[in-house]
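The data layer described in this paper is built around a simple, fixed record for each protein. Such a record has a labelled line for the sequence and another for the backbone structure tokens. For reference, a complete record is included directly beneath this paragraph.
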Amino acid sequence: MHSHSTVGRVTEQSSSASTIKPDMTTNIDDSTTVAVPSVGTEMPLPSTVTASRNCTQNDRPQCISPWIRNFEEQLKLGVPPAKIISLVAERLTNVSENILGGDVNRSIGLLGRLTDVQERRFNNEAQKITKEEAIGFAETMITCGNALLKKHIDRAWRTIQEDRWSEVASGIIDSSERAGILLARTMPNKTHWITEDHIVMEIRNGSTRLDTFPDLDKSGDSLLWAEVKDRITLPRTEHHVVSAIFNNVGQYLKPKSANRTIISRIISATLVNGSSSAGLNMDGYVTIVLEHIDETFNGLTFCVFWDVSHGNWSHSGCNTVTTNATHTTCKCNHLTSFAILVDTTGQHGTIGPEHELALRVITNVGCIISIVCLCVCICAFLGFRRVRCIRTIIHAHLCICLLAAEVVFLVAIDKTENKLVCDVIAIILHYLFLAVFTWMCVEGVELYVLLVKVFNLKMNRLIYYHLVGYGAPAVVVAISVTIDYFVKFKDTDEDGYFDGYGTNTYCWLSVDSYFIWSFVGPMLLVVLVNIGFLAMTLKVICTQKAHDTSNQSEQGIDIKFWIRVSLALVCILGLTWVFGVLYINRETLVFAYVFTIINSFQGLFIFIFHFLLNETVQDEIERRFGDKYTCCRSKKKRQKTVKRQTRRTARSPQQQEIWLGDFTDTKDSQGSATDTKDTLFNIDDEGFVENTIYEGGAGAEGSVDNVIYEGQPD
């Protein structure tokens, strides 16, 4: 063959009259070279002529070495596949450093055609393949595949168009498995091992009990595979099993999405019934355990298999059982080539181990303190009758939701080993934290309602508050779960599906897609509504003060205090999850500490604002237990009781004493010496309770009518 000074040539077989472009040297046959002028028109070629041109760069993906073409011609001439594949293995092994991108592509294609011919020979009774020939063919095939996966061949792979990597790389797996199946069909009662640096294969005989494949302890003396724990566990089967592990091939079997990558070796298993490849009984499941070869990842991990029909990774029929930083366990209802796929969207770094320990300590200490504080608040709000009113009942429900959320967060936020359990935990946390924000909003609504409107006593607005406080979050979560089940939020592969609940690191909503807005959106809406009601409440107070400056200090100070408290808590809760989303998405150290501290001590903040600074609660504690148990006290206000003579009824006339809390002095709004109507602004330590009308003559004790009250004595 004519020798060129360049490394390789591009060859093209013309099926019809063809043309060649200028600036190339063309081989008409093995002994003749025609020089094409550098300037001129394209020249037609006969249909039987093979044209080639010199490669000007070694990394041209179309370039192939002459020996590839030679082996392809030998196969056409009927040379036995076993002989050709031995020559291919020798070439790939000895000249691997000079392999071109075109050599990789054409070599894998050649291996596939050699396997096709060998399968036809096996099925032809006149050309029966011997056991020795099958062993030699399979071992040589693994040697060729191993040579194409060596690290220094990566330069040649990079010259191939990236969108063709999967097609080319899958050919290595396919040819290796088919060669192993041929071997299993020729030696039905034997177990055989083939071990190379990047591929290990086991062909095991039938009558297999529940067992793991491949059994690497028996694979030979290769140190590379000694510590590998990858395995497939099969149910009992009478079929032969061909199993293999491929190293380095995952980097070329790339998912379509740039945010996803394969972080494990590829493991495959095939059942052989003696005459052909057989499928696994659908009643059985296989268990796959794969090691993460890159433990620095941070993202969602999924069990996937290579879908040959679509040329992509899919997780159909596979479930992630457990996962951690080093290994993932899967269950699948079929056999093929499996791997672990990680979604690295949002990966921006990791928190160091020393900071992880500090954050965990802060979380544990803060959550425990918050849990204790919330329990104290719940007991006080629901246990003290003088304290119990609509607003404190709302406080209690807020504390109950936050208490449950803190407990689940403390115990289960990082229980990611079981995907289903992690999803359930994430759904529970989604609901509980939304309920916390909803009850905060209900508190703001109640504050506004009490100030501006007198309700009919027959209407129990607590019923509506409960429906909103617990019903609204339930609706949001139900819609989110439904959408997450039926709609693909992520840019998934064709047959892929990825849940919005549960991540590889936390049992929370995925921040790698728009699904996180099922929490952030309602949270922001609730915060804005709450702020709006508090602003309207403050406006009413300012309007009332503008019409009455004589007692504005007494009328406004308590209600404004509770508005400030509500705003403070809304801001604290809102900022908590602003930093939470930023932390989970970016894993920035500052965000991590801010989120951890605020989130862990939310219960303490509620305890301070609603318990320690609550005069009514402190009064009740002093009344029950004495001064030494009270704290954060201002000067005790004078409490007034107003007696009213109730209308005689058929059941029992009585003198009823109504607990009204602390009142401001009355403001004469209209009346005379004999008939006066005075407006009472019923203000206790909780703020405005209701507007009341005080009726009585001048100098008389008077009576109270149209009173709606929120507390009652023991």
